[in-house]
Structures are given as C-alpha cells and as structure tokens.
C-alpha cells in the first residue's frame, strides 16, 4: 500500500481519527460520569455518590417517562413488525415486481423525508381526522395512541428494509417440498417460515424499538411539545430547559443511553448476517 | 398471500402520503385556522418567500450545506485511515464509529451542550487558547453542534465505498509517477463519489429541518427553518398552521431539489447513480 508506506502520513491520519472519535465520545462519558456527582449542581464535581440514582428511582415523573417510553416502544414495535412482515410476505411473492418496487419506495419514504415534516404530517392527520373520528365512535384518541401510531410509521421503514433482505435469502424450495409432503399452511408457517425468518424478525423488532426509544421529533409534535405526555427523551428535554439543573438529568440520560444502546446493538448483531458492515445501520 | 401487502400500504398511505396532500391543501388557505376551509390563495407562500422568512430559509440552506461539507471533510480521512488497516482492526474501529449512532440524539446533543456552555470544558479550553467567543446561543455554536451531532451518520456510507477501493490501482498510479493529488483526483475520488453523495443526502436532509439543535444550543436566539415551523404549529403565541404547512412544503422542496442536484452531479455512464441508491438502500 502506497499510503501506509509513509509513516508520517499514517501517524497524522491516526491522530486525526483518535482526536475526532475522542471528541465524539468525551461529552457522553462526562455526562454519565457526572451522574455520580455528590453535589447539588449538574456542572460542579463534589465527590462520588449514588445519591442521584436513588433520587431518580424515587422520582415518579422519571419512572412515568421511562414506562411511557417502554410502553410506546413495545406497541409501536408490534405494529411495525406485523406490518413489515405481512408486507414482505406479499412483496416477495407477488407477480407484479414493478408494483413491489414502487411500494418498496413507499415503505422507505419515512427514511428520506425530514423527520419534522413527517411529524407535522402526522400531527395534522391525527388532530384533524383521527381524533374526531375516534371521538365519534366513543374512544378518546389520546397522545399516547398518537405517539404509538407515529413511532410505528417511522419504524415500518426500517423494519421492512431489514426483513426484505432477510426474505431475499429465504429458501422457498423447503416450503414447496413441505407442501408436496402434505404440510398445511399453518405447519409451513410455523415449521418452515418462522425458523428461517426469525433472526430477521428479531432484528427488525430490536431496531424498531431502538427507533422508538431514540425518537424525539414525532413524540415532541404529537404530544404538543411534551406537555401532554413525556417519553424519556422528552423528559430530558424538559429538564434541560429548567433553570436549576441537578445531576438527575445525567442519571436519566445514562439510563436512556444504556437501554437504547442495548436494543441498537442487539438489532445490529442480529441483522448483520451476511457481511460485517453492509448491514450495519442506525436510526437516522 | 395476495392481500397481505395491503395493511402496510394502507397504513403508509394514510400516515405518510395523505398528510402531504393535506399539508398542500392547508398551505393554500388564506386564514390561519386549521378547521376553516377557504378562502384560498397563495398568500402563505408569498409570506414564506419574502423577508424575514426568505432569509431564514436561505440561512438554513447555507448553514446545513456548510455543516454537511464539514462533516464529510472530517469523516473522509478517518474512513480512509480505517479502510487501510488490516481486516481485524478495521472491524473494531468501524464499530467504534458506529456506536454513537445508537446513543440517543437528545442525550448526545445535551452532553455536547454542557461542554460549550460559558463554564463548559470546551469553552474553557478555547479561552485558554485565546479564543474568547461565546458558543452557546450563537450561530457558530449551533454550527459546531450540527457538525458534532451529524458526524456519526457519515461514517458508514463513506466506509462502504472506501472499503471497496483497490489498493493496487493507487500503487500502479504512484509507480507511474502520480503524486498524492493526482491519485486522489483520478483514482480515489471517482470511485468514492457515490458514497460521498449518499452520506451528503443522509446528513443534509435532516439537518435542513433540524429543530432540536438550534433550539437547545441557540436557546431561542437562533432561528432556523425548523424552529420557525415548530413555532407555527406548537408556538404559544399565534400558531398559524397554514403558514407552517407552507414553510414545511418549502423545506420539502429545498430538500428534494438538493437531493436531485446531488444525484445529477454523479458521473454518468459510470454506475454512480445506481450505486448511490444501493448505498442509500443498505443504510
């Protein structure tokens, strides 16, 4: 290699890489570190303590935000994976390949339009149409339902992309053979399709959950600026705006970081079945 | 199996496509109420495309463009370095680059905000170096935060193209007497353009509508397209949905125009356009 034969150049590149990555990670590490601060203020270090972790655990607002986030994540994941799965089932088998191509772009639309526009579209749609329609039927379509719908819409794009690649390597011969041998649809679904698709389903579910946990815009707009309902990111957002900040915000942030990273990494590991990096992907 | 695609398609049409139609309808209303229909006209667009709003739109475009260029400029040497490492080290480093994508965006920006506040570490370091300018609540601070926030998004699309570079080509070039500049100009750049365009699209489009960073870092003093749209829809003083819809459509048009130009700039004949799409699809 030409460039690596020049040690000076290599050192410069390494220095640049280390510096940039350090700059990327340092703020986050410091944030987590200051969560163990003993003092009153978020920004002045006064010794190690778990005081704010204890405070956060007994803080109802924070627990509620965490539960909201998990609940919304769970429901939106179920919806988005179900939609993506049924969609891929159709897209893989349909005779109308061109139609499948167009619908593929429809499904991945949320990945390409600015999130703020998507959120506003959802806001208008829900306030103007869904809410009145549900009220007429006697249901109250509240912010929780709205955010679930919004997150599901956002996550379907990611889920269907992951599942589509998984379905591409699906071995349909096994299914045909099973049918020849007299297996019913149910048996084929449970014993042929599910085992093959399972890793893709799990990856799609993890990524959907990560997308939902990570989302700020959709929750922000559909809960009218976080006043109607707080997810964990919205709770951090509201703490950040206050005058007097305690290390509590660091604790809440650390909790969110860890939960989200867990789902993100699991989703990545499960979805990168073929090459090491080709399937690495993140919620944008 | 014929009908199983329907629920997803209906869902997406209902929650993604139809809202656009409705935004279009909303934006041609002259009055500022959501439930009133008519009288119709383009007054909202006229307002959006005249000062002060035209200035905000242009500002957002220029700043997002500059920030995207910065992000890609910072990321390219890193990715180039990683792609030249032996395979095992490569995986480790690229993982290190990818992990920030899994860290919550709000948390990451807040963590950065702590550093650039008046008593923050970065401000102190800059003061020590003799640069005495406040970062929070300024355009410069918002710009830096944009670069910080979006840097992780550039790594993977760039890495996919840099990984595919064939070292024997640059070797042959330098054997024939090509300098660094010539190697980049004739061998490396043409091969990596699809990845650069893909990462540009990834970064520029969300940046253009960014609300969180200007709001948090700018503290209400820096206005962008995103903060304007937000205040038209959720603002406590005089929300104006039709005007917000017009602004959103302007944002969408700008984003699509830049996307279109970026794709057009790709080398023709050469499979540039196709590979950009495939990179976009993979990510």
Query: Unreliable stretches of chain A, pLDDT < 50, 5 or more residues?
Result: 274-284
Q: Which sheet architecture does the biggest sheet of chain A show?
A: none
Q: What pattern of helices and strands is seen along the backbone of chain B? A: HHHHHHHHHHHHH
**Count of the domains of chain B:** 1
Helix content of chain B: over 70%
Strand content of chain B: under 5%
Tell the overall outline of chain B.
globular
User: How many extended strands of chain A?
Assistant: 0
Count the beta strands of chain B. 0
CATH superfamily of chain A: MetI-like
Q: Could you name the ranges of chain B where pLDDT drops below 50 across 5 or more consecutive residues?
A: none
Summarize the structure in short:
The complex is a heterodimer of chains A (284) and B (283). Chain A has 284 residues and is mostly helical.
Main attributes?
heterodimer, A: 284 residues, MetI-like fold, 12 helices, B: 283 residues, mainly alpha, 0% strand
């Amino acid at each position: 290699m030409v460039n690596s034969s020049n040690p000076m150049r290599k050192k410069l590149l390494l220095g640049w890489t280390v510096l940039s990555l350090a700059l990327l990670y340092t703020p986050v590490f410091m944030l987590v570190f200051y969560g163990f601060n003993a003092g009153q203020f978020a920004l002045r270090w006064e010794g190690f303590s778990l005081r704010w972790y204890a405070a956060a655990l007994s803080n109802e607002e924070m627990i509620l935000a965490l539960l909201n986030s998990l609940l919304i994540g769970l429901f939106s994941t179920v919806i988005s994976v179900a939609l993506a799965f049924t969609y891929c089932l159709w897209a893989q088998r349909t005779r109308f390949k061109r139609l499948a191509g167009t619908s593929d772009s429809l499904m991945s639309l949320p990945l390409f339009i600015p999130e703020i526009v998507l959120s506003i579209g959802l806001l208008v749609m829900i306030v103007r149409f869904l809410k009145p329609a549900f009220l007429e039927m006697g249901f109250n379509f509240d912010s929780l339902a709205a955010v679930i719908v919004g997150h599901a819409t956002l996550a379907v794009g990611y889920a269907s992309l992951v599942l589509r690649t998984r379905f591409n390597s699906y071995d349909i011969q096994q299914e045909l053979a099973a049918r020849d041998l007299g297996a019913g649809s149910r048996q084929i679904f449970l014993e042929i399709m599910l085992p093959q698709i399972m890793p893709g389903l799990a990856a799609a579910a993890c990524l959907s959950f990560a997308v939902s946990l990570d989302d700020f815009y959709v929750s922000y707009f559909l809960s009218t600026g976080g006043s109607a309902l707080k997810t964990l990111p919205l709770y951090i957002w509201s703490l950040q705006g206050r005058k007097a900040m305690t290390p509590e915000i660091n604790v809440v942030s650390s909790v969110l970081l860890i939960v989200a990273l867990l789902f993100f990494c699991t989703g990545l590991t499960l979805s990168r079945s073929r090459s090491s990096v080709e399937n690495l992907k993140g919620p944008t | 199996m014929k009908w199983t695609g329907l629920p997803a398609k209906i869902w997406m049409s209902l929650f993604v496509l139809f809202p656009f139609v409705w935004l279009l309808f909303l934006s041609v209303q002259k009055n500022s109420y959501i439930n009133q229909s008519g009288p119709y006209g383009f007054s909202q667009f006229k307002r959006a495309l005249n000062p002060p709003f035209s200035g905000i739109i242009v500002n957002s475009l220029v700043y997002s463009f500059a920030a995207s260029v910065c992000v890609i400029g910072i990321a390219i040497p890193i990715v180039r370095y990683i792609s030249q490492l032996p395979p095992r080290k490569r995986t480790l480093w690229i993982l290190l680059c990818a992990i920030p994508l899994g860290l919550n965006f709000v948390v990451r920006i807040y963590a950065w905000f702590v550093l650039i506040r008046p008593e923050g570490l970065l401000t102190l370091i800059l003061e020590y170096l003799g640069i005495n300018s406040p970062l929070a609540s300024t355009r410069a601070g918002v710009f830096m935060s944009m670069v910080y926030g979006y840097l992780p998004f550039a790594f993977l699309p760039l890495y996919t193209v840099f990984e595919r570079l064939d070292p024997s080509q640059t070797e042959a070039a330098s054997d024939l007497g090509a300098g660094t500049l010539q190697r980049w100009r004739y061998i490396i750049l043409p091969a990596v353009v699809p990845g650069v365009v893909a990462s540009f699209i990834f970064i520029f489009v969300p940046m253009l509508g960014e609300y969180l960073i200007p709001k948090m870092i700018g503290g209400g003093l820096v206005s962008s397209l995103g903060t304007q749209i937000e205040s038209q829809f959720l603002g406590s003083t005089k929300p104006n949905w039709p005007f917000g819809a017009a602004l959103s459509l302007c944002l969408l048009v700008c984003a699509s125009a830049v996307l279109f130009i970026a794709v057009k700039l790709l080398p023709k004949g050469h499979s540039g356009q196709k590979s950009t799409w495939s990179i976009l699809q993979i990510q």
